[in-house]
Amino acid sequence: MSVRRLLAAFALVSCFPATAQTASDWQRLAPLAQTVKAEEVLSKGIDLTLPLVAENGAAVPLRVNFDTSQLAEREFIRSIRVFSSGNPNAEVIDFHFEAPFSRVELSTRIRLSESQTVFVLAESNQGRQWLNQRDVRVTVSGCLMTGDDSVEAAAMNTPRIALPRNTRPGEAAEVRTLINHPMETGFRETAAGDVIPQQLVESLTIEHNNQPILLVKFHTGTSANPFVSVFLDETDNLLFRWEDQQGERVEEKP
Amino acid sequence: MDAFFSDHEQAVLILGALLGIAYGAVGQWSRFCLYRGIEQRFTKTDTGKLHSFALAMACALLLSQVLVELTGIQFSQTHYFQSNPSIPLLILGGVMFGIGMQLANACGARSLVLLGSGNLRSLLVLLCIGLSAYMVMSGVFANLRIGLENLTRISLPSASVPDALARTGLSSSVSRWSATLIIAAGLLMYASRSETLRATPSNWLGAVIIGILISAGWWITGVVGADDFDPIRLSSLTFVAPIGESLQYLMLASGMNLSFASVVVLGVILGSFGRALLSREFQWQAYDSVGQMQKGIVGGVLMGTGGVLSLGCTLGQGLSGFSTLAFTSLIALPSIIFGAYISLRVFKSY
């Protein structure tokens, strides 16, 4: 990571502000505007990382970072939701926190059907809301000649959980998870013109000592083989449970 | 590995840069070049260049297949394995690349090496390659390319020679090794016929090292870059799209991650520069005439466009792709050679 940062710094990091739009951008996106309840939407403290140009709109890496020093006493982040302005369905992925997290940093991979703006909305237990946005230009895939309309088996399989190699006590550690599943959107057609039915993994629940601490809801905007990485304060006695639209469940312990 | 690098991505980037530096230095020392080989064949002089390319192909093939045996990497994950490729576009792309290579006097990889040793002509060629490659891949001509691809696609029962042999009922390792050994033996026999090759270590040793570097590329992306959650795409040395990607990185670094392909490109220029300085061969060079410059521009555009259509350049398809024994490589490489040959016929008189 540090090498990449260094090289990026050498390559003259651009001085332009990433987002110079007016605040009304998000108001035009109905599902997002309906979710914003606070009178004043804050922007300081929430960071959204996405590539400027994505050559593969099917899996665009997304990272959300919230600076918890912005929170008041006894205030914690309740939810973080991601919306897209140009996808058929604006909802991308939602994170609901059932307990205070000392470090709020989430990564996943999302689908973007075209060049558009991605929004992230965070809400605290005291009702304060934070919003940030990034523009992503999606080009035609660089991977050539992959005309593929095969219908994969839509059952969840091979759940994977990686705990960090060396954790320091008292410090949140990154836990990465992935489960194999095609995340069929219901918007795709076969060569013959039949709509491929929707098949989604609906949610991932992370439990600590049998208490849910994080609920992740996946939508059509979440990439196939849903990947989630979070920073957890405790990495013992964890349980991960994925559930799909048919009610099938897969449970895994690290 | 874990002790040296913070994560697999960093390991791949650092090793990729070293791989590029090694290729740049060896390429500068040995003057490895498929185009020079074809030109000699045309002028009937033996400088061992075509034979050294054949030797590099044989080494890359043998070592890459040994790597598959040892590590279990899957070449079917590379973009050379296409189950429904557009064969007309592969051939057209290869021929365009060959013509461009003749007009510009060097292929993409050779241009990077030349730039490192002070040849400013190749800077222009490289800019043209990178720009035109991205114009066809994701820019103004992308939709045209995709439309043409969809029109001309055909479905193949298998994507490589070993797969095709395996369909006759042979076991997969028998079919892989029989294909590998027969093809490698043929190439080695051809290479050994050149007295010049045997007499000049820079030619044969350079070719052997480049063969090793190809398999090292597979090892870096396929073994070091393997990760359950975020695997690096399996690839080795290839230059057309990566030249474009490196230009894009220079312009968009704040919103883009550095990739294996880009660090290799950077490494080749540095490696060649270092070796040219050490051997006191570094010398600024530029175009002497308008005609030469026009040829460089047209050649660069043809190589960029053709390289994308044929899924790779002389290195990408000729060595990396070839070492996987994918059908697309076995179609693209002869097309490149054919393109260079007809261009020599038309534009050169000996």
Structure description:
- The complex is a heterodimer of chains A (254) and B (350).
- Residues 10-22 and 142-147 of chain A have low confidence and may be disordered.
- In chain A, strand 12 and strand 13 form a beta hairpin.
- Chain A has two helices and 16 strands.
- With 254 residues, chain A is mostly beta strands.
- Chain B is mainly alpha-helical and 350 residues long.
- Chain B has one domain.
- Chain B starts with 7 loop residues before the first helix and ends with a helix.
- The interface between A and B is medium-sized, with 32 and 37 residues.
Look at the structure and name the CATH superfamily of chain A: SoxY domain
Biggest sheet statistics of chain A: 10 strands, mixed
Query: What is the succession of H and E elements of chain A?
Result: HHEEEEEEEEEEEEEEEE
Low-pLDDT regions of chain B? none
Content of β-strand of chain A: 35-45%
Overall body shape of chain A: globular
User: What is the first-to-last residue Cα distance of chain A?
Assistant: 25 Å
Question: For the CA atoms, what is the radius of gyration of chain B?
Answer: 19 Å
Annotation field: number of helices of chain A: 2
Which whole number gives the mean pLDDT of chain A? 84
Number of strands of chain B: 0
CATH topology of chain A: Immunoglobulin-like
User: What summary fits the major beta sheet of chain B?
Assistant: none
DSSP helix count of chain B? 16
Class per helix and strand makeup of chain B: mainly alpha
Helix content of chain A: under 10%
For the record, give the distance between the C-alpha atoms at the N and C termini of chain B, rounded to a whole number: 54 Å
CATH top level class name of chain A: Mainly Beta
